[in-house]
Description:
This protein is of the alpha/beta class. The chain is about 25% helix and about 25% strand.
Amino acid sequence: MTALPTHLEATAILNGRFQCVQPRFGFRFSVDALLLAWFALRSGSNTPFCELGAGSGIISALLVRGGLPGGLAVELDPVMIECLTRTVAENGLESRVSICPHDLRALRNVLGAGSFRMVVANPPYFPLGEGRVDADAADARARHEFTCTMADLLSATRYLLPNRGRLSLIYPAARLVECLGALPAHKLLPTRLQLVHPRADRRASHFLLEAAKSEGPDLVVESPLVVHDNGTAGYGAWYAELLGQIED
Length: 248
């Protein structure tokens, strides 16, 4: 591993098989990123993808390590672009993950319409005015909709996808009704939905959603995903499946 600047550090995940470079202080990835990578890989798609708001690059890197032929990681924040670049390099994925240092709200300036049959996103969870805004600028942008609202994300997705192209995303469960209501205005139809529960006896905390542009099969509601097995700190069966999907 190459030496990192003092404001960054590498975190080993997936039993040490993968390195994610992220800020030492400020925004850091969570299990949500792993859940979204698992969900997207289960879609059965085998096509280049575009990740919107790629952050440290963990999702893009996991998707190509999981067998997708390549991807484009779009990120606006300079610190996260640095992390993204190093995550890609530390895992030897420079030939498979390209980096687009650009605002997803203006992708029409740099990418063609219908460029990708697959889009993935782990967007900011909180609308402005909700929740505590972190003093760290990168953390604030990652968690709150300063530079990417739900409408911004869906608009960019509509532009990037051809008809029948797919979007995979994760949001807090409290925004499910809002998200389902927003899809039609962007010509997106829900095709697969899975509620995420921290433990079997807890209410859903997040949802994973796949949507298709313009046309697609009827909505399939998957069995609930339980993050932790049997109320313990260990991850559930989904984690073992993700490990099996990732190349050595």
